[in-house]
Amino acid sequence: MNIHALDILIIATYIVVTIVVGFWMSRRASKSIDNYFLGGNTIPWYMLGLSNASGMFDISGTMWMVYLLFVYGLKSVWIPWLWPVFNQIFLMVFLSVWLRRSGVMTGAEWIKFRFGTDRGANLSHIIVVVFALLNVLGFLAYGFIGIGKFAATFLPWQLSADPTTNTNLYGLIITAITTLYVVKGGMFSVVFTEVIQFFIMTIACIWVGLIAMNEVSPDMLAAVVPQGWHNLFFGWHLNLDWSGIMDAANTKIANDGWELFSIFFMLMLFKGYLQSAAGPAPNYDMQRVLSARTPREAAKMSGFVSLVLLVPRYMLITGLTVLALVFFSDQLNAMGSDVDFEMVLPFAMREFVPAGLLGLLIAALLAAFMSTYAATVNAAPAYIVNDIYKRYINPNASERTYVRMSYAVSIVVVIIGTAIGFFVTSLNDIIQWIVAALYGGYTAANMLKWYWWRFNSYGYFWGMVGGIVGAMIVPWLLPSLTVIYTFPIILAVSLVGCFAGCLLTPPDDEELLKNFYLKVRPWGFWRPVHEMVRRDHPDLEPNGDFGRDMFNIVVGIIWQTALTATGIFLVIENFRAMLLCLAVVAVAMVILKINWYDKLQDYPQMPAAPAVAASAE
Question: Could you tell me how many helices (H) and strands (E) the chain has, helices first?
Fold first, then answer.
């Protein structure tokens, strides 16, 4: 591909600035392990929010969403619930506050806070560290594969005559650059470079959306899509027939297994609710919450992510999609059954993005990769250094020693993740493994830990083991089923492990449970512990916010979905639907302002509140 000198200059300038910022921030990061992993809990919530939004804007995910919108039309708005995208609403409404009140550094350290230090707690601690490292390595391999393919497609230099070697060499170069600034700067570097990356991506997204609006009229789009493509809502079946327009799209829908869209939607909602209620996995999302200055700021940060991310990201997704639909449909049809819908994004970029903007867009997508990769790399040493080396090997080392160990661990996990990427050639294979095997096994145990006092460390350990093993075996035993349809089976296997491990062993220590309840103040099945705490605090009131929190979650999900649809309707120039979405967004924000934002608390009001707040910090 020929690329203009201006585009090369923009890309090079972005890379240089990113490295300079990383080294500039390294002095602050190297002062202590808290500074390195959590930014010393001094980074403002809005910068953490921009950083988190940037970290969620990855290349492969964007290519996937372009394909979804191309094939499924407006109904693709619902499909990211697979991950689930509305986990940010659960974090915003109550889980970020609960998590930040713990005052810990990592997800594994949170296990000690919840379950203590006995044998069962140590087993739980180890399984979380294992889960976190598998998660990190999986995402590093995923990132390495994705960025190599992207760079080999768009950057003009052939580093090798062999396409696979060329892809791998680009992957090595870009991951090395990313690792350099992350290892030096820690969380400070990650956040500040991601803020820069976010603004680059936002400018590029809006610009591409405007190009599509200028090039493609509503009538031109209507001529190349089937009836129902523009409809956000659905019936029992998908009812989207591409026959005579692009037959391969019908084959893709059948292979995805989502034709019975109502069943698919209900399973997404069921799975998404449970996974969201379990809280964030021990990765970069959790690190942002723990890095916030206060519990209240952690909640605001989580809400800010959806507000700033969705409209510009979907302007890019929609812009590239409609350009490809109108101008690339003939080429896709010529491919017949071999059509690759993931080529929609690179084709649209090559053909319709002018010089200058192309460099900015490539830099933006490089930024998307680098931000996600950087956040993942930063999470790994937090578990190895803080949760293994500091806890079991050298608890009295100097802060500088811990930071140097973090440098070394970051480099090692990057090498291992990259090595895995050499042997796994399919992005789909690695992401399916992460979503099914890891996140599927995470749900039951991590949901129960928040809401049930009797759930102990052995229940957590065996629930995690059962879930992970079940998620690996069940899809293998039922290969004809789409992964989401195996979720109820995997959940049942995990729940057996949870209840067997829990009910066959004694409850956790009374003082441990009281300390957790007093600091976090969750709602749920905590009455016996509440009664124990009231012996010391007679005026203590239980958390009565369950109903309000559930109402706010429903409003928040509607708000988030309307934001997503707004970006799409804007670019396809359905201004009536866009204004309706904006009205829904406005009403939802008013409700959330009154019923969520105005009622946020760092710590519950009670006689001993100042002491609790101090200990949590």
Answer: 26, 0
